[in-house]
Amino acid sequence: MKLEAVELIRLNVPLKSAFRTSFSSVSMHEVFWAHVITDQGEGWAECGANDRPDYSSEYHTAAMDVIKQFILPDLFAMGDDLTAEKVAPAVHWMKGHRMAKAAIETSLLDAQLRHQGISFAKYFGAVKDRVPAGVSVGIMDSLGELMRYVDGYLNEGYLRIKLKIEPGWDYEPVKLVRETYGDDLLLQVDANTAYTRDDFDLLKRLDEFNLLLIEQPIFEEDLLGHAKLAQYIETPVCLDETIISADIARDAIELGAAEIINIKPSRVGGYLESMKIHDVAVANNIPVWCGGMLETGIGRAANLALAAMPGFTLPGDTSASSRYFETDLTEPFVLVDGHVSVPTAPGIGVDPIPEIVERFTVSREWIKR
Ligand code: OSB
Ligand code: MG
Question: Which domains are assigned to the chain?
Answer without folding.
Answer: 3-117+354-368 (3.30.390.10), 121-341 (3.20.20.120)
